[in-house]
Amino acid sequence: MATDTPCRGAPSAMPGLNAGQAAAVRRAQAFMEQNLGQPIDVVQIAAAACVSRFHLARLFRSATGLSPTGWLRQRRIDQARHWLREGSQPVGRIASELAFFDQSHFTRSFRAATGCSPRRYALHAASPY
User: Which of 6, 34, 117, 125 could form a disulfide with 19 if both were Cys (CB 3.0 to 4.6 A apart)?
Assistant: First the structure.
């Protein structure tokens, strides 16, 4: 009978973490993926991973190089890039769908991550050149 909880001391796919620690990081990542459009905080993420928020921060940084909220922000920006390339949703709707406070907050976050505004990114992505 297989379980999702690995044995203590078992090898991990995440260097520097044992299997149990890697499982906690994966639980946190899965929770964040499932809640990209919801306003969630590190306490909720840690609860989903079954560790304290302080332990989660250490594990997450060791596994990904980012804080949990930094990783969540990056995933939201990645999803926004995808939608902007598709051209299927206006910027304001993308901001709302990805739990940014408002379009301005989304635009600032997107620009900080990509170096350009969402509108410029969408126009460039739609350009055949």
Answer: 6
The residue segments making up the domain with residue 94 are 72-126
The radius of gyration of the chain's CA atoms, rounded to the nearest angstrom, is: 17
Say how far apart CA 7 and CA 50 lie, in whole Å: 16
The whole-angstrom separation of Cα 99 and Cα 12 is: 32
Half-sphere exposure of 98 (CA within 13 A, CB side): 27
Average pLDDT, the chain: 88
User: How far is residue 94's CA from residue 96's CA, in Å, rounded to a whole number?
Assistant: 5
Residue 10 has pLDDT above 50, yes or no: no
Predicted pLDDT at 15: 65
